[in-house]
Amino acid sequence: MRVLFAGTPAVAVPSLDALIDAGFDVVAVLTRPDAPLGRKRVLTPSPVAARAAELGIELIHAAKVDAEVTARIAAAAPDVAAIVAYGGLIPRAALDVPRHGWVNLHFSLLPAWRGAAPVQRAVIAGDDVTGAVTFRLEEGLDTGPIFGTLTETVQPGDTAGILLDRLSHSGAILLAQTLSAINAGKAVALPQHGEVSLAPKLGLEDGRLDWRQPALAIGRRARGVTPEPGAWTMLEGQRIKLDPVQPAREAAALPPGQLAMDGKRVLVGTGSHPVELTRIQPAGKKMMAAADWARGQATLESVVFE
Predict the structure, then answer these.
(1) Three-state DSSP class for residue 245
(2) For the chain, which terminal residue's Cβ has fewer other Cβ atoms within 10 angstroms, N or C?
(3) Over 80: is that where the pLDDT of 54 sits?
(4) What sign does the CA torsion over 106, 109, 113, 117 have?
(5) pTM (predicted TM-score)
(6) CA distance 113 to 131
(7) CA 27 from centre of chain
(8) Are 15 and 82 in contact (CB under 8 A)?
C-alpha cells in the first residue's frame, strides 16, 4: 500500500520508522518548512524531514496545504495518508485524495483532549490514565471515527515530555497495525463516545506557577509544561525558569512563594504544603541545582517568588 506520511516533530519519527519497518511504501513525506533554531537562528529541517532525507523519501515542505501542495500529494498517488503531529490543517480537497483517506495518530483517548497539546493538558489535569488513538481525519477538530486505541498509565514523575515519548513509540505500533488492517479490508472505524475536552496549544503564560494553588496542582502544572513551554516564576521583576518540583508534605508550612532551606533542600510555600525545588535557571544563566543557586542568596528567607 502506498502511504503519504505527514508529520513534523520528533514524536512523529517513530511512526515513520514503524511504517517503513512494516513494509509500507512511503511514497512522500509532508512536513513543515525548515525553522530557525538556536541563538544564531540557523534554518534547521524538522526531525521528520531529517529522517525522511536519510531514508531517501520525497519531501513536501509546506506550512499550509494549499492547491499546489494538494496537487503534489495527488501526484504521489497515495492509497492512504498517515498523519502524526503535522502542525497544520488538512483541507477537504486534500482529504479526498487518498482512496482510504487520512489516518491520524492522536495522543489522547478521544474525545478527551482534542487539540494540539493533549498530553500536556492530561498531565496538568492530573489524569491517571491517558493513551493514543488512530482515527479517520475529518475537517472537524479531532472528531473522526476511531480505528484503534491504546492506554497508558500516567506515572507520578511523568513530565509531558517523558509521557509523550512513551506514547510516540507505542502509538507508532498502533498506527502500523491500523494501516495493515485497512490494507486487509478489516478496519472498522467507530464513532467517538464520551465527554469532550479541549487541549489548545500551550503558551508561555501557561508555564507560570501560581504559588497560591495547592502543591499538587503546582506539581502537575510544572510537569505538564516540561519541556515546553517550561515552568517559571517571577523574582524581583525577572523570569526564573524551573524544573519540575517535588512534594514536601512533611515540611513546615510556608506562605505561598516564600523560600526556605530545610537541610540541603530548597523549599517553596504553596497554598497547601511546601514543594522542593530541583533545578532553577536564573535570568541570563544556565540551569543549576536549586541548592547551588540558594547558596548564592544572602538571605533565602527574604526571597519570595511572585
Answers:
(1) coil
(2) C
(3) yes
(4) negative
(5) 0.94
(6) 11
(7) 27
(8) yes
